[in-house]
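Practice problem 4.
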């Protein structure tokens, strides 16, 4: 089994502001529990756009995994 280490993560959200502009925001997470909380209970009217996880592989190289989502909405 490959040895990897999780370092940090970020959930990025999109939402429409009062002027009907698409705005991006994010929240950091440090555990799977925090990730699930951010994804299952996002701020009101915010949609998860992507999840970014940063870690280190067995050779000590920095690795990044980005999971992208596409949500269609209207302001």
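Answer key:
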């Amino acid at each position: 089994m490959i040895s990897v280490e999780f370092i940090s993560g970020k959930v990025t959200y999109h939402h429409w502001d009062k002027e009907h502009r698409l705005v991006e925001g994010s929240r950091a997470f440090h555990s799977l529990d925090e990730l699930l909380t951010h994804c299952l209970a996002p701020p009101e009217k915010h949609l998860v756009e992507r999840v970014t996880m940063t870690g280190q592989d067995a050779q000590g190289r920095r690795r990044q995994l980005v999971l992208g989502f596409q949500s269609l909405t209207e302001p």
